[in-house]
Amino acid sequence: MVDMNNRGTKLVIDENDIDKISNLPMDILDKIFKDMSFLELVKTCVLSKKWVHFWAMHPILVLDGDFFRKISGNIKLIEDGFSGLIDKILFQHVGSIVKFSLDLSTIYYNNNRDLGHWLICVTSKCVKELTLKNHKHKHYNLPFCVFDCPTLTYLDVTNFIVKLPSSKTLFPNLLELTLKSIKFRPTNANYVLNAPFLTSLTLISCNGVHWLTIFAPRIKFLTINDSHDICANFFVNFSNVRELLFREESYYEEGRFITWSHLLSLCPNLTRLVLNNSCIQVFNTLRERNIGEVIHYLEDPKCIDQQFEKLEFVELRKFEGTHFELIFLKKILGYSPSLSRIIVEPSDDIDVAEILDLYEELMMFLKASPTVKVVVAPHG
């Protein structure tokens, strides 16, 4: 091949030296292009004949909202057009799919059978990371094939109805599970989810979690937000949890309230605990008693018969200055010999003077840890 440089001199270039990237092994190419958007990946087909089918062999398929928004402006995808497009992408793809992400929020989609067909195709290709998002008001049923996929290590599902195919489900290799706005619809009295290698579990705004029993002996990170039908029995199998983020904004049903002292006794290996003020309120079994009697009970040293030996970090968010919150802080400081830092985030209704008074009061509490640092500061 003959080319001209910027000085007008002829240069002879070996064509084999031009495209060194194309000659790299596929596993190296996959790593190079793993963070490229799917639309950009498809555009590589115009580079040369060697790249025509590269996108179809790439093990990462991310069909997110950004992808659908961009292509909807270029082609007419109305009614079943989006479904046909996804069919075509999966039909043309060859080889394994390591990571698959699908966002149904921005597309016209009204056929749950299509979703089942797509996921059967994906799970049959040994998928390891699966993300399904749906921010519409309509809930879709999560296809059963997801629960029969033994290769999954990461599962993130948003806004689906879950009906487990059997009373017992095994995820033999699952490491991280995130469920958001999930509605569990039981066909049996109980669901048992066995995930022997699960290390991280996140439940956000889920309904019907009390039907679910999770066996995850290796779990270390547990996040629960606004899943208010969780009862104390849910935590029995999480004795090895190291970090717990527990936030509740909803009301508490009779018999489902979890006291912080009971929570800590069920999770004795906690090193990090983040709560908001609504998790510190008086529990239901005492709610009809005189408030003075309840406070007297909580202040009694005998109400806690153990040390929180491994607790190192505690954060209390949206502090409102209630007596119950102060008792919680007092007990944590007094029974946590390994505590290194405790952070109190006051609510917007607490003024500066009250924050200073709170700090002075906390500094007066008896501390089991001689090195603990107390921080009282607004969010951020």
From TrEMBL:
Q: What Gene3D superfamilies does the record tag this protein with?
A: Ribonuclease Inhibitor (3.80.10.10)
F-box domain residues are: 18-71
Which lineage is the organism of this entry classified under, starting from the top rank? Eukaryota, Viridiplantae, Streptophyta, Embryophyta, Tracheophyta
What PROSITE patterns is this protein classified in?
A: FBOX
Q: What organism does the UniProt record list as the source?
A: Solanum lycopersicum (Tomato)
UniProt name for this protein: F-box domain-containing protein
PANTHER family xrefs = OS02G0105600 PROTEIN (PTHR34145)
